[in-house]
Amino acid sequence: MHIVFVHRHGPGQFVHLARRLIADGWTATLICESLDRPVPGLRVLRYAGDTRQAGSAGGRPSVPYIEAGRKVADILHKLELNGHKPDIVMGHIGWGGMMFVKDALPDVPAIGFCEYYFQPQGGDVGFAPSDEMSLQQRQTMRLRNAIQLSTLDQLDAGISPTAWQKSRYPAEYRSKILVQHEGIDTTRARPDAMAGFRLPDGRHLTAGDPVVTFAARDLEPYRGFPQFMQAAALVARENPEARFVVAGGDGVSYGRAPSRGDTWRNRLLQETGLPPDRIHFLGQIPHKDLLSLFQVSAAHVYLTYPFVLSWSFLEAMACEAPVIASKTAPVQEVVRDGVNGRLVDFWDTKAIAAEVCSALTSPADRQAMRRAARRTVVARYELSACVLRLQALLSKLSNRSVQRQAGLGPVAGRRNVVTEWNRV
User: Fold this and answer.
1) How far apart are CA 49 and CA 66, in angstroms?
2) CB burial class (10 A; 0-12, 13-18, 19+) of residue 241?
3) Which among 388, 423, 399, 382 has a CA at the least distance from the CA of 24?
4) Cis peptide before 330 (omega within 30 of 0)
5) Among candidates 303, 239, 310, which has minimal Cα distance to 275?
6) Domain boundaries for CATH 3.40.50.2000 within the chain
7) For residue 332, what is the enclosing H or E element?
8) Burial of 200 from C-beta contacts in 10 A (0-12 / 13-18 / 19+)
9) Please, which residues have CB within 8 angstroms of residue 408's CB and are 6 or more apart in sequence?
10) What is the dihedral of CA 312, 28, 379, 188, to 10 degrees?
11) CATH dotted code for 2-183+383-421
12) What whole-number distance in Å separates Cα of residue 300 and Cα of residue 57?
């Protein structure tokens, strides 16, 4: 079987599935603008990115996404002409790459990764009290959604990592979207009482040290970095032994950059007055080091707008780090307050600080929650189980395609595929 993955910065969410399929003898090709990590055996075909920024002032926000879709369709057409027609295509629908897949390969099953549907309320947009959307921003959001809906309308099925992310899409399309997380490797993300973490200054941290951790791809408001820093300043005054270790870059993954070319890290250090010698900024670190950090954490703070749930949060839970997380919709799908973690109001920095202080002074009180956190991840997000379910869907769709092309009898409709797969 030959599968083509489509992802702007791939393989992204498809990395684990690609590895599994290649190990099982599948041929796998990735069509992408850039490669975020290599996968042995994965053939990579790149297309040139559009230099115009989607949503830029005065521009046409849909143009870069439409162009990406055309480029992907051209590559798929050339694959077919050269005798490398795929048996199935699976790709992210958010950046336009999957928009014309069915025009290029109308008889090939296609599955879309449905990560996030923008709405003017109930999610990230308008969550901050200071948020005000301009008319142009609303138009940009609608155009981004229009590209997703045009894509999803053609596809055989969609995948959303969480039920909340699926719920963001219009009701008319939810029947073809399956809830399936890509998976967390709980054999790597696991507790280790003997773990250690060496700071850049040479200091060695071990389990039992008063270590407060925070991790995000980039340190920015979408992931609650300002609230963490404000809470950390309060904790520092209450607990002179507490040490704060932060993993994440100074770029912007979501939202906007601070004004005047500053970084959120520098701005929050100045605003909070948190002593620089009490906090360690690691930047973006290797994955194995991030897991070691979670293993020595005495209190892991995870804050997020109502938005896409981070892999790192589930990995921290799998490592049995005591989690203190925001009471926002994607987190509430995973965490039950007092059972497998503690939930706090995203904006209440005093409550965040109080929970951190409690975790540092009474670690034994959190042991049951820590064990329950790992059980939650193992039961619902364990990698091998998630990948097997995705593989079952791919096999079902590709087998039906073969039957249809061979004229071996009637083939059930798309909606039945979704219903049957939910019973797997």
Assistant:
1) 11
2) exposed
3) 388
4) no
5) 239
6) 2-183+383-421, 196-381
7) helix 329-332
8) exposed
9) none
10) -50
11) 3.40.50.2000
12) 38
Q: Residue for token digits 């830029």?
A: 56
Residue with tokens 């797997």: 424
In a structure prediction context, what are the per-residue pLDDT tens digits for the chain, which is 424 residues long?
999 999 999 999 999 999 999 999 999 999 999 999 999 999 999 999 876 554 443 345 568 899 999 999 999 999 999 999 999 999 999 999 999 999 999 999 999 999 999 988 788 888 998 878 788 888 888 888 999 999 999 999 999 999 999 999 999 999 999 999 999 999 999 999 999 999 999 999 999 999 999 999 999 999 999 999 999 999 999 999 999 999 999 988 887 788 777 899 999 999 999 999 999 999 999 999 999 999 999 999 999 999 999 999 999 999 999 999 999 999 999 999 999 999 999 999 999 999 999 999 999 999 999 999 999 999 999 999 999 999 999 988 877 665 565 555 444 444 455 655 555 4
Helix (H) or strand (E) holding 396: helix 383-406
Looking at residue 259, the DSSP 8-state letter turns out to be G
Residues β-bridged to residue 244: 212, 279
Q: Which class would CATH give 196-381? A: alpha beta
DSSP code per residue over 110-159 = EEEE------SSSSSTT-STT----HHHHHHHHHHHHHHHHHHHH-SEEE
The Cβ-side half-sphere exposure at 329, using a 13 Å CA radius, reads 16
